[in-house]
Design a protein that fits this description.
single chain; 318 residues; 66% helix; globular
Length: 318
C-alpha cells in the first residue's frame, strides 16, 4: 500500500487498475485504501497503443463465440474444497488494515519528518512488510482449511511457465474492456461535472515519475509489481472468491461479488468501473485455471505495463 502523510492506506498496484494509458496532465494525489489502482486517463493515440487493443478485441470476440457469449465459459470449473467460515477472509482483511495502519504509524513516527522522502519510504516499507506478513498468514490459513492445502488454493510451481503465458493472453483480452470502462466513465463524468474533468493520477505513479529519491521509486515499483499482486490476489481471489463460491455454488456470481468488493475498497469512485472490469478478468482466470498464479501474474503485468507507460510518458523528449 502506498503511504501518504495525509492519508493512511492506498494501494500501488491493481491490481487493480487501468487500461493502456497516458498519464493525465493534471493529477491529484488520491491513493485508495486497499487495492492497487494506478488509474489514469485513457487516451490511446498511437499505432503502438492500438495494436494490442485490436489484438485484445479479437481475443475477446473469439472467446464470446466459443463460449456462447460466455455462458459455457466456466461450465467445467470445479470449486475448491475448503472448510473456511464466512468470516475467515474478512478477518484477514481486518488484520491487514489495522496492522498495516499501526506499522506505518510506528515507522513514520520513528523517522519523524512526514513530508520527507525518508518518511514516505519508511511508511511504504512498513506497508510492504505488513503485506508480506498477511500473505504468510493467508497461506497458513489455506494450509489448514483447503482440501489440498496450498496446492488446493492454486499455488503450484510446476504451472508457473504456463500460467505466465496464459496471464498475458488473458490480460490482453480484458484490456480493451478496461479501456472502454475507463473511457465511458470519463465521458459520463465530464458530462456531469464539467468538460475539464480528468481522472486523478495515482500517487504511486506520481512518486515513480517525479520523486528525485531513487530508493523510494524502486520501493514503490516493487510494491506495485510484486507485493500488491501477491497480497490482493491471495485475499480477494484466493480466499474471498473461494468462500463466496462455496456458499452460492456458481462461479460467476462469486466472481461478480468479489469484483464489486475489490472496486469498492477504493476511495475514488471514478475508478470503480475499470477496477470492476479488471477484477472480473482476474476472477475468471482463477476459476478457469484453478491456479492462483494466473491472476497474480495478470495483476503484476498490468501494473508493470502501467508503470512503464507512465515512465515513457514522463521521460524528457529529445
Amino acid at each position: 500500500m502506498v503511504y501518504h502523510p495525509q492519508q493512511r492506506g492506498g494501494d500501488v498496484a491493481a491490481s487493480c487498475v487501468q487500461a493502456p494509458i497516458v498519464p493525465a496532465r493534471k493529477s491529484n494525489v488520491n491513493p485508495g485504501p486497499v487495492s492497487n489502482g494506478l488509474e489514469q486517463q485513457v487516451a490511446p493515440v498511437t499505432v503502438a497503443e492500438l495494436i494490442p487493443l485490436a489484438a485484445g478485441v479479437a481475443l475477446f470476440a473469439g472467446w464470446l463465440l466459443s463460449t456462447s457469449l460466455g455462458r459455457r465459459s466456466l461450465a467445467r470449473s470445479k470449486p475448491r474444497r475448503n472448510c473456511m467460515t464466512i468470516w475467515t477472509p474478512f478477518g484477514l482483511f481486518f488484520i491487514w488494515l489495522v496492522g498495516l495502519g499501526l506499522l506505518q504509524t510506528i515507522a513514520v513516527w520513528l523517522v519523524g519528518d512526514l513530508q520527507s522522502w525518508e518518511g514516505l519510504f519508511a511508511g511504504n516499507l512498513a506497508g510492504a512488510f505488513g503485506a508480506v506478513l498477511i500473505v504468510a498468514l493467508a497461506l497458513l490459513v489455506a494450509r489448514f482449511t483447503f482440501a489440498r492445502g496450498i496446492k488446493g488454493l492454486g499455488l503450484r510451481l510446476r504451472t508457473v511457465p504456463r500460467d505466465f503465458a496464459y496471464a498475458f493472453v488473458n490480460l490482453l483480452a480484458v484490456w480493451p474492456l478496461v479501456m472502454a470502462a475507463m473511457s465511458l466513465t470519463i465521458l459520463v463524468l465530464r458530462a456531469l461535472v464539467g468538460r475539464d474533468f480528468e481522472v486523478p493520477q495515482h500517487e504511486a505513479l506520481e512518486i515513480i515519475t517525479k520523486s528525485p529519491a531513487l530508493p523510494l521509486q524502486i520501493l514503490i515499483a516493487i510494491q506495485a509489481v510484486i507485493v500488491a499482486p501477491l497480497v490482493e490476489e491471495t485475499l480477494f481471489r484466493g480466499l474471498l472468491q473461494t468462500m463466496i463460491r462455496s456458499y452460492v455454488g456458481r462461479p460467476w456470481p462469486a466472481i461478480a461479488m468479489t469484483s464489486i468488493l475489490f472496486a469498492a475498497v477504493h476511495f475514488n469512485a471514478s475508478h470503480w468501473p475499470a477496477l470492476f472490469v479488471l477484477a472480473l478478468g482476474l476472477g475468471y482466470s482463477y476459476e478457469k485455471s484453478g491456479s492462483l498464479l494466473r491472476p497474480i501474474f495478470m495483476h503484476a503485468l498490468f501494473n508493470g505495463i502501467t508503470i512503464a507507460a507512465a515512465l515513457a510518458e514522463s521521460a524528457p523528449k529529445a
